[in-house]
Amino acid sequence: TWGRARAALRSSIGKNNFTTWIEPLEFVSYDDGVAEFHVKTLFQGDWVKRNFGDQIKQEICNQGAEVTRLNFSLAKDAMPRPQVSKPAKKVETAEIKRFSPDTKDELPGAPLDRRFTFDRFVVGKPNELAHAAARRVAEGGPVSFNPLFLYGGVGLGKTHLMHAIAWELSERSPELRVLYLSAEQFMYRFIQALRDRQMIDFKQLFRSVDVLMVDDVQFISGKDSTQDEFFHTFNALVDQGKQIIISADRAPGEIDGLEERIKSRLQWGLVVDLHPTDYELRLGILHQKVEQYREHYPNLEISNQVLEFLAHRISSNVRVLEGALNRLAALAALIGREITLEMVHDSLADILRASDKKVTVDEIMRKTCDYYNVRMSDLISPKRSRNIARPRQMAMYLAKHLTQRSYPEIGKRFGNRDHTTVIHAVRKIEELKAQDSQVAEDAELLRRMLEA
Ligand code: ADP
Ligand code: MG
User: Fold this and answer.
1) Does residue 112 sit in the same domain as residue 213?
2) For tag attachment on the chain, is the N or C end more exposed, with fewer CB atoms within 10 Å?
3) 100 band by pLDDT with thresholds 50, 70 and 90
4) Would strands 148-152 and 178-182 be described as parallel, antiparallel, or unpaired?
5) Three-class DSSP category at 159
6) Residue 116 CA, ligand 1 centroid: distance in Å
7) Closest-lying ligand to the alpha carbon of 214?
8) In testing the pocket of ligand 1, which one of 118, 129, 160 has its CB within 8 Å of the most ligand atoms?
9) Is residue 319 within 8 Å of 89, Cβ to Cβ?
10) Quick check: 71 and 37 in contact, CB under 8 A?
11) What is the pLDDT of residues 305-352, one digit of tens each?
């Protein structure tokens, strides 16, 4: 009876669900309306019961056996129940010991994440400069970059690098007074000091550190008195030759509502940006994370195929990528075997949908026109003057790199041009990017605007 019910289920719930959930069920017994199955993990049984219970009962009934209840129990040789609470989701934080020999006062910094070390930072093309600069500052080489200004979009590793610097410094020179905090916390402490009439203490404290790190400095844009205080702290420290490290989501010059004098001060040292991740970097990060999960789940298997799929499809920020992997790791642990691509599609449907926001050729054309201040009609016209041909080539280049469209498809959108014209345009921009920093910057800016 189960054999036939099983075959019927295969067509009623679909092949993927069937292979994932029904096939592994081991039919044990049928007794007085109760069908008993063995499962590998209790989670599997629970899932099957909730999602396919009614259909299973129905199909068994269709075969002529009356079933009122399904029972799922662990087979004797089943894997022990995994401990779901174990994955490294929990934020492990720790305070660096912040005592100086003479004053003994503890610095009011934010806790540092234990996992944010250089060891765990995967270096790729998009972040190699930022990484090298951070390392240099942490190792205190002969040339100092002061301030070091790190910027880049959300989830690209700014905070990770700053914590890594703090950890490294505290290990190499435990006597250093390292203060890490967010710009928000800086403002909060400042306001608190004003309110409690503790400004002298506040100033003294911030001027007594050896290394000051302020994360997400864009937060103080438009907050005038906080900016003022920040500026004075900044100057006092630089005058004493103390190291300052700042992060923001944009380049100093692009932070609206930030005083000019601060912008220019921030640009004194080294300004480096973290570029959006590329496929190789994402894949590298995923591989590293899987290794880390194995510390908790030695048996965790996530195939390369799945990792490649994730790296390909989730191109936004690393935090989202980590979230996706987290979920898969938990799922893999729960069901006790390797996850398939189908399961990835199911369990990450929301994340995949959100990162599906694909750039269109149309959008590329419009934004490129805005950027170079040319008309759309010019872009698709036969005109060949350079002030129009260059934006057109740029738009074609972007269309090729940011969408899945083929050369002929792209040519068509640009006033029915031949695919060889598109190929030529893409090569031309690639060439120019290498020679002309203006072109490289244009391409980068446009890409960011389009992918934002
Ligand atoms: P940001 O401060 O730029 O918004 P975070 O530093 O908080 O981003 O990084 C977001 C998450 O992605 C963190 O968990 C961080 O460890 C991880 N991450 C980002 N870049 C890397 C990288 N290159 N290697 C390993 N993990 C990374
Ligand atoms: Mg951050």
Assistant:
1) yes
2) C
3) very low
4) unpaired
5) helix
6) 8
7) 2
8) 160
9) no
10) yes
11) 999 999 988 877 899 999 999 999 888 878 877 888 888 988 898 888
